[in-house]
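Quality-control log, excerpt.
Job 1 of 2 completed; input and output follow.
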Amino acid sequence: MHILGALTSIRAIMQTRTSQGAIAWALSLNTCPYLAVPAYWVLGESKFDGYHVLRHSQISDLPFASQTHDRLVKEDLLYRPTTDQQESQAKLLHNLARLPLTTGNDASLLVNGEATFEAIFRGIATAKDYVLVQFYILRDDDLGKRLIACLKERVEAGVRVYVLYDELGSKELKPPFLEKLRQEGIEIYPFNTRQGRGHRFRLNFRNHRKIVVVDGRLGYVGGHNVGVEYLGQDPVLSPWRDTHVEVTGPVVLGFQVSFIEDWDWAAGQILDVNWDPQRSETGNKVAIGIPTGPADQLETGTLMFLDMINSARHRIWIVSPYFVPDDDLISALQLAALRGVDVRILIPENPDHKLVYLSAFSYLEEAEKANVKIFRYKPGFLHQKVMLVDDSRATVGTANFDNRSMRLNFEITLLVHDSEFAAEVEAMLEKDFAESRPVASTDYTNQSFCFRLAVRCARLLAPAQ
């Protein structure tokens, strides 16, 4: 076992992202190989091999990469920057997402579960050709049954229905339930991170995306999963605070590209779907969908957040249930605050993961020194993933402000560049801040030694959270 530990430590040194992580793995693998070797093969991988090759060898041949671009140009749906700064920003977003920044979009906020699922069910009911559905958590409870009933109604009308779920997030789903759906005409697959040769123990990756696409013209993305707790029916965490967004326009095809990539990995099939971009009938917002994940060549999730923080001029508000940033992100937040930007972080008072909750305390002193303001939402569990930059940019998506979302999860974020939408997000968040309390460093320093030790130990485990 010690020989295996030594050999594994060589792999860890060569492949671990940071020097601190490489040192930690090398020491533990050589001193405690009986514990560290299994832990490394489950938790140590940072790149999602296989999927990356599939995406660039097959997805690049999709119509979206050729004909759709021509249609976007013809219909004047490609964003045209008018300043050097706008051009630089558009180029960055295009290179991160590998998708175009488009105009002719509209986006409507969906606040909390009832509004979100009413809109999703209403949208699915309009499907004529196909529905793409993807959730990290899919439960066979009252809400799950309502979703399935809605999808079955469309199948009976001749509509194709494709469903993806994460096998760990949705671990309670039973094989008979899944087989019944398949018999009823719903094509459903787990994302299955462990498929492929040599990937049996690849358990540390998650597909955390929540996407619904109807006929390539209507899309939904945000923080909600399919479970009654998202309707506020969890006795411990309720009321549940979350945000989704309903989108029309060519940006919906960006959500669709993300789903097609995931479906190709899970089912080994490129779906025949609509790639004809359609201008929204209700708005002309500039928007882009940004898929991020461990199969990307770069750490696109981290780079996206860093760009938002570094480009903020007078405000950046970040809302996330989990606040476990790395050193680069903390430094970026401090620099923004030091140049006079109103930096606010909103996290829940009532947590659903104790380790993440403890980790957040370790950042209070660093934040306070630079005037980064941290708030805790009091009424119930806060699960939304929203960001507001200045008065013109806002994001709604699935990515949390933690290492897992930056590096280990497949995520999707909608960025809208529009002052009207930003004002709606501002009004929504102002209400959330009004129900929150400011957090001071004394919330940590005045605690007992045992609590502070638990906080520091939790932060040491941040790369795995």
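Job 2 of 2 completed; input and output follow.
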Amino acid sequence: MKNKFLTILTLALALTVQANAQGRNEKMPDTFITNPLLPGYYADPSLVQHDGKYYLYVTIDPWGNDYLACWVTDDFVNWEYNSLNWPTKQACTTSLSNENKVWAPSVIKKDGKFYMYVSVGSEIWCGVADNPLGPWKNMLGNKPLVGFDTTKYCHIIDSEVFVDDDGKTYLYWGSGWEWINGRCFVAQLGDDMHSFKTTPKEVTPDNYFEAPFMIKRNSKYYLMYSDGKTIDATYKVRYATGDSPFGPFKEASNSPILQADTAINVFGPGHHTVANINGQAYILYHKHRLPYKEGTAMRQLCIDSLNFNANGEIEKVTPTNGICNPLKKASHADRSDIVEINTSSAMGEFFTKEKMLDNSMQTIWYPNSSDNTPWVTVKTKPGKYRQLIVIPEFAWEKYNVTCETSEDGKSWKTVFENKKMQGSPWKIELPAGKNSKQIRLKTDSPKFGIWELYLLK
């Protein structure tokens, strides 16, 4: 079942973002994309371009879900949330599968079709679709492409598909157990895309743990990968080079090329993809949410430029609070009509009401954990508003939501109710042609928080 909602990421012509732990705001140039890219907790990105749109397939945190999420954009500013019919934990389970959920998609477009390789239950499954949003189907019926390794020599996760210049297609995969002994394997895929032409070969480079990603440049093969623990600040991106898709691969002298930068609150960046947009390479990766808490897997997606030096080395990636939009487009949310915002409670100084108005998907308003009926009230300038836009913490959760309006703050009229509100953002219709001086949003649902909030006339 697919749920589509337009997510207007609040990219402004005079954009401010959270710049550091003290909350200092800085002006950003036009067409600036802030990091994190998306509202919510996602990891292990895979990006596909098709018919002028970009499809970003992601793991849902913490530690996956029973399905994947896919966010769609045509400008890296406005995003649309989708859930996919496949893969699901239920559809991708064998007698050997473990409890691990749906993780780490890798999606490509080839010969007019879309192919996905994904980890479910520590097995690799392969799917095909005619369209990037599906419907998807398992190419092997109810069987995985790579089954569970009962010897536990290799953890069968983090598959990544690579198409070479000659059209040959390869699949890389592998990790370790208990954060040690990561293994990387590769095999050439058959023309059917669901069998192997070659026997899987181990190509593990030095300091490898998981998340292989292959790129080719000037006849050189760059095997990029992650090292450390994704649950803490040790996670980082390394790379090794070779002369063929099968290696051997030697780690580069300047590896790692992306790692934690505590000065700007970047912790555990890794498990990435690389996209070429308008002649520039970009690295998309996940990092920990703020405030950082070691041992967790609540991650958010970021984007930065990826460059090479004259010697063909990948240059060190400097993690940032954002980049200039490669598509040279911008959008913004005008909050000048909001006079005041109040809430039923706030869970400490990091989660205050102001976080809903700061144009950042890195900060969020939370009510107190003891607040079972949280609410937000917006006082507005006189005007006729048609929609209240709310970007909730979890796009896939179902919330019991009520919206009310008032002229005096005492007498309230219910204008919207939905006991299973889902998606992102919420577009709450307000009474047509009415002046609403105050608008109140209420819920009694758990796991409630708001990234951003604004009004449309």
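Post-run check on job 2. The chain has two domains: 29-324, 338-456.
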